[in-house]
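Class prep. Protein, please:
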Amino acid sequence: MNTHYIHRPAPSLVLALGLLANALPAARAQDVADLPAPVRGIEAYTSRHTLTNGYGNWHEAGVRGQWGVNSQLLGMEIATMRRFGESGRFIGLSDTMTWNEDWFSMLSVGAGDGAAYLPRYRVDGFINRKLLPTRQWVATLGAGYYRAPDGHIDRNISLGSTYYFDLPWVVQAEIRFNNSSPGGVRTHQQFVAATWGRAHHTQIIARHGWGAEGYQAIGNGVSLVNFDSRQSQLTLRQWLGPQWGITAGLERYRNPYYSRNGAKLSLFWELP
């Protein structure tokens, strides 16, 4: 799976599940480091990454919002970025549905503007089941389809597990199996994550992922194929007022061809 693709319109799973554990609808994010947004809120962010071996720098800015309606949480994100010397734009939509006190699901769609490193379009879906009498354990089954501008296709299936200890800890693990074509390149990746803290106060999230990637487009018709990579993230979400705050994060990514180090800063508002 191309780990450098936009990961967010799927809202962050750990925090989304956190809200749902309390029977509230929430969006699932693609990147655990993206902490959960409120049921109604907006967030503006910017990030910068430096790459080794002459791959240039990455820049990105965007805005995302979520709006709860009855048992649904609707999400939208718009982002603009520059990676591998090419500018790109991305838009994503998501809908998280709470079916009853035990089951909830999420469907997201997204599309790029033709930049090589963004999807022509992608679709991701997840079904979640709360387990145990206390509903502190959530099991997740997911599937995704990704079509790239160069014609290659990724299909994936994922299995995830999230456990909510008594405050302040949440832990999560996931494994994703991916099949890329042409070539039938089969890979898998996994991650573990831990969240410490409380919403409306301070939250710290640590995440580490590793595994193999099938394809990674780097521009000019060039792709890296079937290689190992690792990614670590550390994120702080700090409320500065009753309804607003900041998120700051650091990230390190490595593969056999280059290393990437970066930082992200965002400002979020909860709406009444």
Observations:
- The longest strand covers residues 223-239.
- Residues 13-21 form the longest helix (9 residues).
